[in-house]
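=== RUN LOG ===
request id: a7f3
mode: sequence -> structure
chains: 1
length: 64
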Amino acid sequence: MKKQEMRKRLASLSFSEKISILKKLRDRSLAIAASGLRGKPLDPEKTVNLPGQASQSREPHTKS
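=== RESULT ===
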């Protein structure tokens, strides 16, 4: 389903239907958090850049 179609579909729902969807999403989010599937946030100091990716280093580059 395209983004615009999804927006129209959600806009056409009643308020109580939207609340029901939000409750399901909240419950799912809580279940994922409790199971540990979400994992820990990445530490930028330990992140490895793959070839072709821009460096995300906070230190300024100096020429040698």
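=== NOTES ===
The chain is about 50% helix and 0% strand.
The chain has a mean pLDDT of 79.
=== END ===
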